[in-house]
Amino acid sequence: LVLFVPMFGTVVAMPVLVREYSSSTRLYCFLLAAWISVMFGSNWFMVILTEPGYLASYRGSDVDRTLQGEYSLDLGDGQTLLYAPRYCNHCGVFKPPRARHCSTVRRCVLRMDHYCPFTGQCIGLYNHGHFILMYVFAFTGLLYSLVLCCLSPREPMNEPFWNGVGHSFNMIGPGFGGFAMSIAVRLMISAGFEVAILAICSAVALVAVSFCGCPQLWFAIRNLTTLEHMFSMQEYVQIKPKTYCPVGIQFYKRSIFDNIRGVLGTNWPLRLVVPGLPASGLGDGKSYQPSLDGVKALKEWIRKIDEDGYEPSQQQLPLPEVPGSATHV
């Protein structure tokens, strides 16, 4: 089902779509369709085959429970703070920043985004880039398919295509379904059965891909995971002894270029042209650079406490439970 549109479009419908083009144009259309299909399919397979970044489990280890489990946060000027410890009772490990426990695979995942039933895989640090590229090339391929379908009709009996759609619409009935069926009927008459099937499948797939993929692309350019969007304020930074500041939803948001590089890796230009290329330069997934606004906010809290004698309330800066009895998040 996933590969039906690219395979059907390239093998079956493409010869009909470009039959009246020149030989060189037909070749270019075939090569572009094949390349988009390979890029989409390879990244889809790599999402499934690439380990998202599982944390090792240490069930039953008393030694690890006695560790502080505090990961450091570099503010960029030699000043370092510590994250509040987050202990996973299921895996027996302290979770690094942005890591979550996946209840489906029963493992803790580095920078977990979500569990995707479409691929049957957790989306985490090391396969998130493949997941985003899968949607990028799905959008590209479906739009390319629809453009070729719209350019393919050859008007029978000198009747304009959209006039024929209007006539079919009057016969089939009102509503969006009637309009879509009218276009399909006219495509079938004007361009052939193959083009009509491809146009219908591409339009339906584009709706589904837009519904699922647009939020993912938006989160990626904002350096935000799906779980961070849904469940904000799950992490805290120790700004003073026993004083913790919650990490907000925009804490890791940087420039769009830096955010994309954080998902696709430092070799992101190559990943746009080489099928299934793994990311490089993602790091160990246990430390992340905060945004300038996030650093500024933390320093402002520290200044208020140091200079103004400000004492935050329990509601503003809640204290996490001590390691060993920490609640699973």
Describe what you observe in this structure.
This protein is an alpha+beta fold and 329 residues long. The strands form four sheets. A four-stranded antiparallel beta sheet has the order 1-2-9-10, covered by helices on one side. β9 and β10 form a beta hairpin. α1 packs antiparallel against α2, α1 packs parallel to α4 and α2 runs antiparallel to α4. The longest helix has 29 residues. The C terminus is likely disordered.
A few lines on this structure:
With 329 residues, the chain is of the alpha+beta class.
Please give the number of β-strands. 10
Low-pLDDT runs: 58-66, 161-175, 314-329
| Computed CA radius of gyration, to the nearest angstrom | 26 Å
Number of helices: 11
Assess the beta-strand content as a share of residues. 5-15%
Chain-averaged pLDDT: 80
Judging from the principal axes of the Cα atoms, what is the shape? elongated
Strand order of the largest sheet: 1-2-9-10
Q: Given the helix and strand composition, which structural class is it?
A: alpha+beta
Series of secondary-structure elements, N-terminal to C-terminal? HHHEEEEEEEEHHHHHEEHHH
Distance between the termini: 36 Å
Largest sheet: 4 strands, antiparallel
